Batch of 3 targets.
Target 1
Amino acid sequence: MHHNLHIVFIGAGNLATNLAKSLHQHHFKIDQVYSRTEDSAKLLANAVGAEYTTHLEDVLLHKDLYIISLRDGAFLELIPQIMEQKSDALVVHTAGSIPMDVLKPYTQRCGVLYPMQTFSKSRAVEFDTIPFFIEANNEEDKDLLISIASELSSKIFEADSAQRKKLHLAAVFASNFANHMYSLSAEILQKYGLPFESMLSLIDETTRKVHQVQPHKAQTGPAIRNDQDVMNEHLNMLKDMPDIQAIYKLLSSSILNHKSDK
Amino acid sequence: MHHNLHIVFIGAGNLATNLAKSLHQHHFKIDQVYSRTEDSAKLLANAVGAEYTTHLEDVLLHKDLYIISLRDGAFLELIPQIMEQKSDALVVHTAGSIPMDVLKPYTQRCGVLYPMQTFSKSRAVEFDTIPFFIEANNEEDKDLLISIASELSSKIFEADSAQRKKLHLAAVFASNFANHMYSLSAEILQKYGLPFESMLSLIDETTRKVHQVQPHKAQTGPAIRNDQDVMNEHLNMLKDMPDIQAIYKLLSSSILNHKSDK
């Protein structure tokens, strides 16, 4: 029974924090949390009843499952050190854009457990509708990862490294860039002393809409109407925020170009 | 009692359609719908039990309230014709970016009724949480507009033309540009034969998050982590979609720039 698995987390960032807490709530045993940052390691370890360390050489050996969830650059740099004496353990990472193969030179038991979601430490995420994309180097470990993920979510998919990379790219637009549009909106409002809360009803509806209507068909606003008067006025209002003005220009022309494609 | 008001809609686009239907459901009398496009005029008129016309000179005279909801360019061009013989009627428009003053040369009874939302004809919007921003040229008409809007929504605010223009600009980012990010995400997924539906859980959480956390603090993804490896790989994947690649570049650097500001 996989609740007897002993799990170690390498990383204590947003994703690791949410995933570890969810596993802990589902009665998985997390033995240890590693993070270079002591505060992060300690905070997460305390939350999930684990030990913590800030030294890779002190990561416990002979555990069942190591879940690596580090910033991609740090991950690739640290792989050789992380993988020392892990040749018989199942080692997975959680990154959308890193192929499983980076782990292969070190172990035959490797895989990926990619929950496609935006995580913040300050906000607990409900896992049950998060899609998990799973890959493993052998059938047995794949089944194990599927059965673990199935306890957290009802949306489990298999995806190889190439598919995962494409999903991640699309997710950057759907989530990270959409959120940045909220940030720029908030910045404009703040400049004028208006509250960001006034946008929430609009933001909610924009999101609800794409559950029913393809996004390019849901597009509204001055750009899709090619309403030059409004766009020129908006560009003029942004003249002392040139970086935001450049984004307004590029996105408006992109909206118009994509209209003619469809 | 304002349910005895006789209303005429000048325009039958997305906003006009949703607003007219909502007024109709709340037992307001809509006498006529004008649109240059016969299909649009007819469709909306039938839905709200009104007559329709495609000729401005046939718009009924001596009604109580004229609601102008046209594309901004068309509106400004047609104002003189629309306003003929309306010098004693209350005439309002619904546009975020057009000042109330454009109506003043023609009538002393003018105003604005701006529901800040993204409207599609194919999707009925619940009005009760939509913020309405209201302006009028005299107190009596302002009270009338407030009392009408209060039947549709619980969020009624007064805003002058300058404030409304700022809200509209911020709304373009929060809604129109965010939706375009969904479109680009869908386009990338389509190219790879993956379904847009896989993004919905992520999109929902991104939206829920900004109800609790300021958007710039909710930002996640490779740009805010300055994860050059991932960003370069993504740019490389977009090399045969140069317009989307340019957007990826500009938004990633904007995310990073705004990080250092905060």
Target 2
Amino acid sequence: MAGIGRRLIPLMDRILVQRFEPELKTKGGIMIPEKAQAKIQSAKVIAVGPGARNEKGETIPVGVKPGDDVLLPEYGGTKVEIEEKEFYLFRDGDILGKWES
Amino acid sequence: MAGIGRRLIPLMDRILVQRFEPELKTKGGIMIPEKAQAKIQSAKVIAVGPGARNEKGETIPVGVKPGDDVLLPEYGGTKVEIEEKEFYLFRDGDILGKWES
Amino acid sequence: MAGIGRRLIPLMDRILVQRFEPELKTKGGIMIPEKAQAKIQSAKVIAVGPGARNEKGETIPVGVKPGDDVLLPEYGGTKVEIEEKEFYLFRDGDILGKWES
Amino acid sequence: MAGIGRRLIPLMDRILVQRFEPELKTKGGIMIPEKAQAKIQSAKVIAVGPGARNEKGETIPVGVKPGDDVLLPEYGGTKVEIEEKEFYLFRDGDILGKWES
Amino acid sequence: MAGIGRRLIPLMDRILVQRFEPELKTKGGIMIPEKAQAKIQSAKVIAVGPGARNEKGETIPVGVKPGDDVLLPEYGGTKVEIEEKEFYLFRDGDILGKWES
Amino acid sequence: MAGIGRRLIPLMDRILVQRFEPELKTKGGIMIPEKAQAKIQSAKVIAVGPGARNEKGETIPVGVKPGDDVLLPEYGGTKVEIEEKEFYLFRDGDILGKWES
Amino acid sequence: MAGIGRRLIPLMDRILVQRFEPELKTKGGIMIPEKAQAKIQSAKVIAVGPGARNEKGETIPVGVKPGDDVLLPEYGGTKVEIEEKEFYLFRDGDILGKWES
């Protein structure tokens, strides 16, 4: 497999993210069955592409950087499996917001 | 959860708003049942993104600022829950108007 | 309610208009039943937005001003109720024409 | 009624035209029943808008002027009644051609 | 009728053409029934518009001139009857090619 | 017929190509029935247009030249019969690749 | 056949890739039946086009080069058979990412 042990560098304005682990228990300590777990829309930015290219071929840098915690839209994104771990690729423009660090 | 206790900074030209509380009573003091309460289209601007990026990568500032009272379109917007409170993300261009302060 | 007693400032290239009152009687003085009243397509401009923003963030002023009498398209526009009065928001580019003052 | 006795100034690149009267008789003098009258696609230009606005807000003048006789497309246009007379608004770009004066 | 005895000047990037007469006989001299006659896609350019206008209002001249023999696409074009003769209006960009003169 | 004995000059960014003859036999010499013959996607460039025109009316030259062997997309193109021979018109941007000469 | 023994040079911003061979055995050495083999989304870049042309006719170079290992989207791409080997053409902008070399 090409990707074994190698980092994936997103192309253009794509952002590689890893969603946070869902909360397994309520605040009161009660186990949350998988089905009831809300879809996690917050994620960690793992890697970013150079940015989209404009009419002149200049690259427009993206608006987030590796390490940022971001809020993803409910839908969209491309699932990517790297060494059996689940990542997602989103376009820079589709990421809703950044959690203040 | 990533967002606990942290502010959400909208990205690009997105605007984070919180709708006003619906009127619970008519002017005559009669309770308005929830179903009959008109959908609140006025809201407070909580946070704004840096603005959309143009072909040169320059950011075009948005047309509203935190603290503005605005009129929202009837549809659209992305619901965002932060610490169990309900917020909405709208694009700058979709907000209909500002109430004179 | 946020809007009580406050003016609404349209955003971008939106135009706030108030339709003229329909004619209640024919020229011959006969009452016109509500159903038969033609939809009023003429209106007064109440307030205008700063204009649309172009690629450089510059604002392109709109083509009408408060006080103009304008001809509206048959369809479109967003109904807005302010202090129980009915207004409409149209995009500058959708307004068909101005009646010579 | 707003328009009574006042001229309509088209906005943007709109052109106000009045269609020519249909031929009521064949060349041989035979009356043509209304149903058989071909839809008149030629019209007189009554008034023209300032033109469409480009990215810089500059107005691009239209390609016809009041008094021109023009050929209209078979479909399209917005019907406008002014003092019980029938006019049409077309976009400058939709008018097919000008009859040589 | 507006057009009687007057030339039609196409507007923008429109091209006025007249299709060639279909071949009535095969090379062997056999009459071709109307139904079997292939749709004539070659035509003579009669008149051309000034050209499309760009963002600055400059006119971009068209790529053919009156007198050229051109190859039309199988579909499209607007039929125009002038003094009982059949013409077609095509956009400059839709004309497939020119026959070498 | 207009085209008799005359070359067709494609307009804009169109490319006139002639597909290669299909292989009639397998490598082992067995006749391939017409139905089984793969659709030929390689072709010879016969003539090229001046290129598409940009906003300023400047012509953007195409990326292939007469004599090139090219790879066509499986679908698309406009069939053109010239003196009973079959040619195709493709847009420059739709041609997939060039075979190294 | 035109392509025999000749390289294909992709046109515009197209990228010619060859997918990696699928894993035939699990890590534990068990044969994976063809049906169960995941669609290989990693591939080697074989050849790249000059890049897309912008409004001025300038070529915008692509973001990958021959020899790169890339991650393809799950769908899309044009299958191309060259000397009985299977290749794919993708647009530069559709390639998701590069595996760090």
Target 3
Amino acid sequence: KYGVKYDAELSAEAMKEVVKKFKEIYKKETGEDFPQDPFVQLRRAIETVFKSWNNPRAIKYREIHKIPHDMGTAVNVQMMVFGNFGWDSGTGVCFTRNPATGEKELYGEFLPNAQGEDVVAGIRTPYSIKDLKDRLPDVYKQLVKVAELLERHYKDMQDIEFTVEKGKLWLLQTRTGKRTAMAAIKIAVDMAREGIITKEEAIMRVKPEHIQQLLHRQIDPKAKEQHRPIARGLPASPGAAVGKVIFSSEEAEELGKRGEKVILVRPETTPEDIGGMAAAQGILTARGGMTSHAAVVARAMGKPAVVGAEMIHIDLEKEEFRVGDVVVKKGDVITIDGTAGEVYVGELPTIEPKLTSEALELLSWCDEYRKLGIRANADTPEEMRRALEFGAEGVGLTRTENMFVKGGRTDIVYEILLAETEEERRKALEKLIPLQKQDFKEILEVMDGKPVIVRLLDVQFYALVFADPEQLIEQYYKKKYEEGAGSEELMRLENLIHRVRAIRDADPQMGFRACRLGIVYPEVYEAQMRAAIEAAAELKKEGKNPILEIMVPGTAEPNELRFIRRIFEKVLKEVSEKYDVELDVKYGTMIESPRAALLADEMAEICDFFSFGTNDLTQFTFGWSRDDAERAFIHAYLKKKVLPYNPFQTLDDKGVAKLMEWAVKNARKVKPDIELGICGEHGGEPRSIEICHKVGLDYVSASPWRIPVARLVAAQAAIKEKQQKE
Amino acid sequence: KYGVKYDAELSAEAMKEVVKKFKEIYKKETGEDFPQDPFVQLRRAIETVFKSWNNPRAIKYREIHKIPHDMGTAVNVQMMVFGNFGWDSGTGVCFTRNPATGEKELYGEFLPNAQGEDVVAGIRTPYSIKDLKDRLPDVYKQLVKVAELLERHYKDMQDIEFTVEKGKLWLLQTRTGKRTAMAAIKIAVDMAREGIITKEEAIMRVKPEHIQQLLHRQIDPKAKEQHRPIARGLPASPGAAVGKVIFSSEEAEELGKRGEKVILVRPETTPEDIGGMAAAQGILTARGGMTSHAAVVARAMGKPAVVGAEMIHIDLEKEEFRVGDVVVKKGDVITIDGTAGEVYVGELPTIEPKLTSEALELLSWCDEYRKLGIRANADTPEEMRRALEFGAEGVGLTRTENMFVKGGRTDIVYEILLAETEEERRKALEKLIPLQKQDFKEILEVMDGKPVIVRLLDVQFYALVFADPEQLIEQYYKKKYEEGAGSEELMRLENLIHRVRAIRDADPQMGFRACRLGIVYPEVYEAQMRAAIEAAAELKKEGKNPILEIMVPGTAEPNELRFIRRIFEKVLKEVSEKYDVELDVKYGTMIESPRAALLADEMAEICDFFSFGTNDLTQFTFGWSRDDAERAFIHAYLKKKVLPYNPFQTLDDKGVAKLMEWAVKNARKVKPDIELGICGEHGGEPRSIEICHKVGLDYVSASPWRIPVARLVAAQAAIKEKQQKE
């Protein structure tokens, strides 16, 4: 209207007109004239600041950041300086270090002849702070000096707002600057090196999320702004992955061998899918929760996964899935974001993960402070190598389920499954022992000199090969009517359905699994222990130093441990004699049921170690199945404030932690040197690790990808404790 | 060979020949001559007695009766008397009272001119003890006197062995006599009346099984000897039942109305089968465990049931079931024994149950001693009337599931199930309120003046109408291919399958049920509470005295109770105002999860009462689902001595009872007058009732048929405690 680009160019007349307009708007909205008394104006301005404490955005902000609502705010009243007094005036914002990379350099923007709003509003394009050096060299020199001074004073990178009025520098505000994960770590480490802060302070300043963010390939945030996900599921395993959609594990494995990038898409996965999962870039399932097979294995492999994406309808026969109108066919490229639980059509650009040299340095400092040991939950030599790279001091949990099915061993599982007598089962198991011995040798060799806890079989045999018995029934009827299968084939299926229905658990989590299997079918645990202990014996013979610990899952009663211990001792003796070698193998149990925790003193008498399985312990303490809870009601509980957080993600400090404390105290009373750890997923979660430290565990064990975070949090917990004592 | 019938008739020559034969056998077996020195003979005889301590039968006996193996035995050496010195000699056995009926009369057998072995061996038929009166009147008189004396001395009915040598009575042995349930009760009550023992002693002397045995119709033991069961299952609900096999609940209901006796045979039952179950004499299912729907409902109804009889293959279409080669068709008569878990083809004779007058008297004595209150788990007016007859002082648990489905209300459940919004659910629930109000009125009227605990809905909606979602899939494919059903019908089924699969729990026991339902869908609990409280208000208006207590199931977190309490208070206020009547309704929770027990102090602040749901509490404390445990491994655990007893039948005193004790202590600390009870099935089990007494509960609640036993055991626990203090 006035033919100018910036407000500074407006004439006095035009300004008067604008002021008039503003006054009219004020009167219309408030019903009174704009006050002309400067004191009234000031008073109103102060009131407005106070009132802003209760606007919805402020309330939301406080809720997110857990700031109490009754804390209140202050108002500073001070003289105004003007950046729009001419071209030797101006205003700017600067960071004392680069907030994106952490480099030590003045970083920011400057706008000459302007006020602060002009920078914020983005009407004029500001100059880089470097330009200030040429335009107002004295001011720039002063700013550099002040920046240094403020940083030394506040001991952190500062975000400074300043105004220059006729060549004179005024600081309007300084505060700790926001920064990226990478910058946060670099700044903390650099400042400790520069002597501005101590190593302890550097450790306390880095947040677990900072470390975590470095460890996963992410979708480029810019690309995310431009695309919408076609489906959402649970963020089961973080990171981004791009690949061709493949619906069969065998095919994924084949393509993987040829170097193709694929995303394995399944209704849900079973141990039989491990090969395909390993070969895929990422996993997408339509069913299952945060502890479904797909989720647990993906996290252990460090592979991005989105699970339980119920919006996608998979048609395995047509090899396609649908979301609403969108059809994604085999071979189409998709991108999944396991951090957010999102699925995109097409290839989105991603950012590489890496632990920076500063992160590595920081973590080495952490190791000086922390009291908790750090172990890994890892099942394969590859995972263990990764864990060692990340700083694991041992393996807290090796699951053995996969050793029953990998490399074509499924046939043996069917043999066990269909066996009618102990002899038949033993015969089938005999075939497994040499194969599993080899598996154990590989593992113990990678971890040579470091403890490896081997958990005995935890799931029922049928669950090793069928995800869902209902599929059998569908298959049966389909075969019967559509394919006209031969009567032999149908008979076989019918038999299998009967068999599985008869042994299927009504409540799998509380069913016939874990050590119950090893008591009803002692030959199974005997075979597993023989394979593991013989592996250790052979390595010892070869001059290696295998440190094997055998762990019994799912105990609730000390007699269970006594029963299996008799088999353990028999096998240990037999193997020692066979190889003529002295073996020191520890025997212990998971503490997964409330009863095991309550009877910890009696359990401790029979054990060399405990490992808290806090996922099951949480399930049973609450009486909630995790899958059902996360599917059906945890969300409502959080929304309705019935729960402050999801106890399957963060250890429940009121119930589960109480049981753990009780168990630790009573176990140590009976056996002071008993080794106590945690191998539930909580072992990798920051707030839970702090509880583990407080409760007095010896170590936490987490999937390899969570180990760096665990090292940080363990150090922070130790430092906090030290500070509280001082 | 010697032409005689009894050994007493043998000549001296013949005797010598027999002795020679015996000597030869002895030499052949032992390799040495039979010792002729009487002292050596005596020594050998003594050794034989000592050795008998370790024969397999003795070991088994001690195991059954829990007698320690290191206790040892004694040998008495005494002079021999001879009952075979002629016809004024003889031997016999007598009871001081009739061991079958308890009548006060000498009861037993006598054999003249014979030794003890002759009576035991059964070669000669003995005379009734009455005959002794005529044959040897003096001896008889003496025996009567001695019997009286011994009974007074030992204060119990005696089982006496005696020998008469030439007219002189010698007593060989006296011990407490074995007796039937009926006799045990009569003898105890009579002896107390006669002043031989005190009332306390009479109560202590009757065993819970004695009372229990009187309460169930049994198969005549003689008939049982002559028939073999065709199938076995779990003894889900005791008693015998005879009737025609019927496979549909509707048909069972119809035939029941016409007075026909039927046995309802189903794969398993759902709340929809309640009508048929009520009309049937007994229930037989092929699947399900001791807490399956069929089992729980049958016990509550006091109806014999055999469940989980997996050997029977039911073909619902053909209306028949098979066990091996045997085919039982609709209309065929079978007999089931719910006490033993057996199924017989045909009608076996049964014995009527009744509480004798002595049993009633004994139970009234019990009420003077016991400290535990006795309530009933009962869902219908009929069950409650039965419970009152048996002496219930209130209702500890009314389940409300049936109020959703009975009398054609299933359609409303489908409406709720398929509702997409809260409004749609509320609309459906509105229809239920007046119907359920009527149900509650009937119940509260029967129990007028006595407390009635109403448990809010505990299962998910779909579970009210489907026993097994898999059946839907079978149905779908069958319809699709066999019946060529219309596409609309198929679409409906497909929709239902999708719906149910989406909301079905992976672990129903720990899934989306109990108070989780009431928090996610508050309108459901609101409707139930409104119906119940309005019923109480209307009765109060009519001058009655309804005592209503509202119970929230399955809590794990105090906030759950706070959330639902807000609804409770709102409804209570609204109803009080609507009817203008002051209502005193208690609000409480079940303690079913370990976490609820651990946080009992905080829970108590929000509650007027707790009721321990020990079935779930046992499940979660162990991490075992009862159905799976009893199907798959409890049996092996007992056999391998991993467990001393089944913790689902008898309260686990090491784990579950510990949690209960903790909860009771901490709840009373916060609220000393909080009302504490148990409504798990353990509440009717003798050893568990004793634990409840020790833990300090106010009452136990059990199904009506277990109430007489509960009264007895509660009295015994109080007496034992008193005795220990003295």
